[in-house]
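Task: complex structure prediction.
Instruction: return structure tokens for all chains below.
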Amino acid sequence: MAMVKRMTRRKVIQAAAVAAGGLIAGPFLRQAGAAAAVKPEGKMTLAWHTNIAPRWLDPGQHDGTATPDNFLNALHDGLIKNYKKELYDHLALADQFEFAEDATSATFRLRENVHFHDGSPVTPEDVKWSYENYRGAWAGVLKERTDRTVILDKRTVRMHFKSPFLDFPRLIGTSNVCGAGWVVPAKYFQKVGKDRFVQKPIGAGPYKLVSQEPGVRLDFEAFDGYYAPVHIKNFTILSVPEAATRLAMLDREEADIIYYITGDLVPKAMKDPKLMLAPVVSGNWWLEFPGFMDPKSPFHDKRVRQAISLAIDRDAMNQAECAGLGRVDGNWINDDVEYGMGWPKWPHDVARARKLMAEAGYPNGFTYDWLTPAPPYYSRGERIIADLQKIGIRGRMQSMERGVYNARRQAGLKAWPGTNIILVGARIGATWANWYESLFKCGGRLGADAICVKSLDEKFQKYSSSTKPAERKQLAEEIQREILENYYFVPVFRHAFMNGIGPRIAAKEWQDVFPTALTTGYAYPWEEIKLKSSL
Amino acid sequence: MTRFILRRTLYALVTLFILSLTIFTVIRMTGDPVTLLAEPGARTEDLDRIRADWGLDRPWPVQYLVFARNVFTGDLGTSFNYQMPVSSLYFQRLPKSLELAAAATLISVLLGIPAGLIAAVRVNSAWDNFGKVIALFGLAVPGFWLGLVLILVFSVWLRWLPTSGSGSWRHLIMPALALGWYFAASLLRLTRSSMLEVMRSEYIKLARLKGLPGYAVIAIHAFKNALIPVLTLAGINLVIMINAGVIIEVIFAWPGIGRLLYEGIFQRDFPLVQGIVMLAGVMIVVINLMIDMLYACIDPRIRLAR
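Output:
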């Protein structure tokens, strides 16, 4: 029953009815309401900061990073999803969601009369097919833990798990983590195939795709069959890789929302009274040392890793990169996810760092091969290189495109020959376990074999199989504490993802467009964003 | 003439063969692309299947032969990133690159040739010095800087032109100017030196001795002859601009081939990079072949000398 309590204590669930009997005792049940009618008007343009990869239009290919959810939130819809302060369990295509008391099954009931953009109904068959054919970052975990998916009636689907799967709702309901709960039309997908689907995707989201110039431009139109009101008629996403161009577009009202204003442009954006700066305190940044477990690695010595932490001027980084609007706190995991811990600010003490280096046998420092920052944040890598040089740790920076970088991270140690430091940035939703599982766990999606601390993985295994909230919390905090105290990862700062809102958008404060960093750093929900002219 | 054409065609084919081999080898040296092809949840057996599907498990010579055969049949492969045929992507973007390159060529010709002509006719004068400064400025100023300055002045301050994108002639002006500026400077220098060389030749002296007016000597006798290398360069510049306007296309979010190449390189999308570089190579080789043939038609000494 402790499980029931933990699940039902959330305010959002308090109003929900409780299901009765059977395997699902109904500890977790939510039901959705109806939407009011609104006539969509006007046009909104988003200037996107990299190229647009068509695979982001297919939830089945969700790569587990924050990027695709910008597109999923417009084109597709999930059964349940993150929404403002609801981390993962906002009812979307499902009007009822039940999670069994023993965490061995999850049942979704679809809303009545929900349709895809081509007019076909969203059916349990589509839900089952989308779930079973999801090929993204968490496919391995879901396949391993799902026993079967059963269609119960014309609106209801149930997933049965092989063992208690407490993290399932958080996993499936977080759009910047997993796309398995985002429903695509099964028949259409099978008819056109994977490659054709990303050229002409059909979803059940608030906006339908009208045209696509691959990599360059997406034109959407409000979907009049969406169950919630959509306020703006036409929505265009343009790929504009150059930050200065994006800012000029916002200034000239060629774009209404822009992402990623670089540190050097922030003062200019702040001076412009027409523009609203949206400093979304978002992803965390930290240093990783692939293969530090090897005694031959200079990073094997805890004192070296601690010296690196002491050498980093985090305040200067925050000031230069985010105009001081980021946060210099201690953990590498965002503290706004389940069991994410706060941690005090790390000290900056170069003299002590040098002393530690000498004690570790490196009085004159050493040379590493590469420091690789997460693209395209290369200036952050240069700052770390400069900080490390002060204690004699010398190396060069290598820059790579995001796709290449992600592929190398997934490939593990063999993709990082020599001595490497990686400056990683990530924002993962819902639970601390998503961070650990993909980034730290040996064999995890991004950690691969680059990070392997057996004792912590064993604790994580215990955490995963536990159904006792108190024990899970204790284990989660123990693991995080050990990572931090041993400097396995060296946290740097939590950055402010600097975005801009133009004068045509109806927003009293930037949070009206970027509601919270808890669930996504991008603008959303797209259907709720309004133009001043339509008010 | 036939032998000359055959010989030239053979040279062109050899060049293309070397080019294709170089691209093929260099791109494969950058690492295993399978991790990029695979979906994030892929297992080892999935990676092996992808490797087999794409023929990446075969020896390099076999892969090259397949690649060469496909190129001959017009199949440039499928882009990893875009999940669509490279040729479709290329020909979707080509009209935009042609539009930009044509406008930039026009600007470079309109600026470079008259300025070069004036500099040569008024050699060592203030006009000439001004031309030299312009040429130096054009060659020294990076296109991306000029592009950003143009956006600042004409879009942000004056609000005359749109910052980026494509769709109307107003979108074209700034990227064409930023791209054409460098080539205008090179045309200016070549026009000037070519004109000076022609002006020193015997037939120009004869024309002057015959008492022809100065403008007639310059316009009819000197300029026409000096123009041959200049137009050759302008033609080659056009091909380069179609395929290599990378930075300008990125700055102005212009959806052309240069930007496609940039994305392909950064995504290690090697069918895309291979395809674009091959097509650019074919374009340059064919243009050069045509120029050689035209030269041979116009001037018999060229085909006899070679």
